[in-house]
Amino acid sequence: MTGVAITGVGLHPFGRFDGASTTDLGVVAVRRALAEAGLGKDGFQAAFCGTAYGGVATGHKVLSRLGITGMGVPIVDVEAGCASGSAALMLAGAAIRGGQYDTVLVFGVDKMPKGIIRSSFFEPWQEEAGLAATPSFFALRAQRLALTSGVTKDHLARVVVKNRRHGVANPDAMFRKETSVNEVLASRVVCEPLHLFMLCSPNEGAAALVLTRADLVSSPSPVRLAAAVLRSHAPGPVLSESTPLSGLTDDDVPAPSTLAARAAYEESGIGPADLGVVECQDTDAARELQSCEELGLCEPGGSADFLDSGATALGGRLPVNASGGLLSKGEPLGASALGQVVDLVRQLRSECGERQVEGACAALAHTVGRGANAGVVILSR
How does pLDDT run across 70-92, given as a tens digit for each residue? Predict the structure, then answer.
């Protein structure tokens, strides 16, 4: 199987853009990725679009606006919640590795409704009982982390402070102002122990990548797609990212994030000790800490100590969410995972200015979608 290089990236900033359609956002990101790769509208053989709320044929609408649909390339729309972009990237990378295509376009786009996101993944009774992927479910997870990992409200607030500090230097982030522990804890309680500032904001945006067979790339040191893995949930613990209230409370059942990480490490030959920077799911502050454990970045039960050590901040041993994470950027579901990858490509190219992680040669992106899908992407240079 051939290797896969990322030859172009593009992003529409994340935020709220009244008057701009989902198609408008996608066009911006795709144009930028194609231009960076030096490609015209006939420069790729297939396209994969990640979206959760874009509706039918979202990818077709974007490429039709660009005059590409007449080229006859297959366009595949992919939905996996927050992991939609990871799923699209996995399919695109596999198509190149398997010899089906030489160059593939991958993009993700969404305009999210404001407020708590509803999902048809959960039954009505689960939503009514607070067991869907809502702040109440996130709060149950945070309460469990307090028991298993010694996570306190102060730890949760400091995750927000860290990510907001990182986001100040990210021109594509929605929130670019630092905050303090006191300000986070002064924001209203949404569901104990989570305060408003500890939750990311659903919003709008788009991201795009161009993938090319590595042996066709002239650059001496391109960023490579070392692994792109999606794993779905097994029936497991009530408070894991699996089907809520599944009836089991066995902590030995691995979360889908752990399954995806193990597979990605094996596929890439790159382990946690080799990583220089990580972008992981932080839909709420507790999710980032749990992600660190599930991805093997720290020991199980060790996420509070990991944060306390300063390892996850810029300048630390393994910066986590140097982009500002979802707590700074906000989250348009279809673009979320690919937005992480765009940022990590720029990190590996040393293009991130004040928030640059020096010396990073390998990076990991992680998303969890609707509690049912976990995506892990590993890049190397």
Answer: 778 999 999 998 999 999 999 99
